[in-house]
Amino acid sequence: MINKLLIANRGEIACRIARSAREMGIATLAIASAADEEALHVQSCDEVVHLGGHNPAESYLRRDAIIAAALEHGADAVHPGYGFLSEDPEFAQAVQEAGLLWVGPPAEAIRAMGLKDAAKALMQKVGVPIVPGYHGEAQSLHVLQQAATEIGYPVLIKAVAGGGGKGMRRVDRPEEFAAHLASAQSEAQGAFGNARVLIEKFIANPRHIEIQIFGDGQTAVHLYERDCSLQRRHQKVIEEAPAPHMPHAVRNEMGQAAVRAAEAIGYVSAGTVEFIVDGSASLREDSFYFMEMNTRLQVEHPVTEEILGIDLVAWQLQVAAGGVLPLTQDQIQAQGHSIEARLYAEDSDQGFLPSIGQLHHLKFGPGLRVETGVTQGGQVTPYYDPMIAKLIATGPDRASALQRLLRGLQLTQIAGLKTNRDFLVALLQHQDFVAGRFDTGLIARDMEALTRAPAPAAEDWARAALCAMGLLDTGRDRQCNVGFTLFTPLRQSVALRHKDQLQTLQVSLRPGGRAVVDVAGETVELGLGDLPQRAAVLAAGKAYLFGAQTFVFDVIDPLERTATVRSDGAITAPMPGLVKQVFVHAGQEVAAGDPIVVLEAMKMQHTLCADHAGRVENLSATQDQQVEAGMVLAVIRAEREEAG
Asked: In 3D, which of 496, 501, 634, 508 has the Cα closest to residue 561?
């Protein structure tokens, strides 16, 4: 049995693993970077080893340091979670060679599934259907272009070592092939150090359906399917189990194919066999094709646990310690429906740019299973994935699970940074998703509608004004807020800004806990405790209104109004981040479009350039400096201003 488990990960998955280990009586050992010293996963474990550094390469990817920590602190097993080193065969092998138990598949199985072309060749041998395509060694333009012609356009170019959509290009016409190939190969080389690609037939209206499998090295079982078709740029957004409109015969055939795949490589532990399915018509037994196998626990595993009533992490720990599969295939029965939404710190109004900073207020809606690695008051940093939580709702059928998830999201409150909450709310109400008839292209096709943000109504402005005055705090005495004035009701001005709109509102407080607010000439009367559909939070100088839509208002301090005015030529940080490079020095002449600084946030780099020619002044940005959103990094003084 396992006595102490080192969890080689962070965030919500580390918390999730720690929870199962604790319930099994297993002691836990966390690892943490400098950025995660007070993170929730550290608090969730019995002990912690601080690896230092901020970036993954300085912490969570340090193989030798992690193994040394396990040995030094008496751990006898290592669980990699997902991401980071979870699918690194060298790490898996090194863990076992150190005399530790590896909670995952053997290194040989990880290697067998690591390269898409080799994996597909193996699947073809064991009778798992694959997408028609070219998976050969020859990589010349002539060979690959000829293969694309034989397969028939449209085709998909995919990096053999790819993942996350990198090194992937759709090609619709022969004349576009060479350019797309060069782009895919360049991206694959940069991301994976391997420029090789394969060519596959592009499936119209594809659905992404995966089978959860589990093996003990001797036999394997499937744990039904998940539909992960709602994706943005090849990244999953919503997952559910079981898949909508899945005929029993197709489910059975896909499950058997996945088991054949697992048993062909002597699979141990949890894994997922992913299929691309032709969704242009009703699902058939000949309409699914092997895409890849993920040799680890998946992000979306909770929906499988919910419909089966099992603990996949507990299964992993049991099998890693030498146990056999807890259930046979005949004993595994699904009930009900479960849907998961991935809640991220990102700004859907700005192309889903990551949003980092402090979570001043965090409250999840009722009726949900919440998997999170953050707490109120914690920080979302620029160093790791910006996931706030996975929110899971389960019900006796799909409609009830969907209703529960939608309400839970609408009642979720987050203040301090931007999130994709409203985008998820809109997505869950999309008519095609509600009907259960959708494919991987739904989000891209309807992105504008899904991210369209309505303007706040007069009542929203009024509620924001009351929030800014501190009058919507449910813990306060309403009568104490009225104040005292002779002959006329107390009147107060409140300045608010929503995006580019600035308004000064006049608030009059009345006896009986009532307020009258003048909003651009329109009168709105509200009860201070009357919040039937919307909650309000004042945090860090902003008023947040929550409900079906989130509205955020900047509360303008009259004494600091002038401080918000930026001179022409000021280059400000569009988000919190790390200054990676400074291209200029004070006094330097620059032309319009010249790069000034590179800002990095959430592994994305943004080059900030001069919008006009001039001289660099007030250069405050320095390399490796952490900056907040809105901070002035430099001022480019135009030549005409200098002359004047």
From this structure: 496
- Nearest-angstrom CA–CA distance, 29 and 8: 9
Query: Helices (H) and strands (E) in the chain — how many of each?
Result: 18, 38
Spatial contact of 211 and 260, defined as CB atoms under 8 Å apart:
no
How does DSSP classify residue 190?
Answer: H
Question: Which amino acid is residue 202, in one-letter code?
Answer: F
Region of residue 489 (left: phi > 0; alpha: psi -120 to 50; beta: else): beta
Q: Residue 383 and residue 388: Cα distance in Å, rounded?
A: 14
Is 639 within 8 Å of 614 (Cβ atoms)? yes
C-alpha span between 53 and 58 (Å, rounded): 5
DSSP 326: S
Query: Does the bond joining 242 to the residue before it have cis omega, within 30 degrees of 0?
Result: yes
The gap from C-alpha 620 to its chain's centroid, in whole angstroms, comes to: 32
Query: What pLDDT does residue 613 have?
Result: 86
Strand order of the β-sheet with 77-79 is 47-50, 27-32, 4-7, 77-79, 101-102
The CA–CA distances, whole Å, from 176 to 139, 153, 182, 186, 524 equal 17, 11, 11, 16, 58
Give the residue among 424, 384, 374, 372 at the shortest CA–CA distance from 402.
424
Q: And the tokens for 68?
A: 């040394």
Backbone angles phi, psi at 438, to 5 degrees: -155, 165
DSSP E strands, 162-287: 168-171, 197-201, 206-216, 220-232, 235-241, 268-278
What Rg, from alpha-carbon coordinates, does the chain have? Answer: 27
Is residue 515 within 8 A of residue 507, CB to CB? The reply is: yes
Per-residue confidence (pLDDT) for residue 608, from 0 to 100: 83
> Is 452 an active-site residue?
no
Three-class DSSP category at 56: helix
CA distances from 402 to 158, 227, 238, 429, 526 (A): 34, 14, 11, 9, 32
Query: What is the reported pTM?
Result: 0.81
Q: Give the pLDDT means over successive 10-residue stretches in the chain (644 positions).
A: 97 98 98 96 98 93 97 98 95 98 96 86 91 90 95 92 80 95 91 90 92 96 98 93 96 96 95 93 90 95 98 98 96 97 92 89 96 95 93 98 97 95 97 96 95 93 91 47 46 87 89 88 84 74 90 75 47 80 89 83 68 85 84 81 46
Selecting among 62, 296, 398, 534, the annotated active-site residue is 296
C-alpha to C-alpha distance for 235 and 233, rounded to whole angstroms? 5
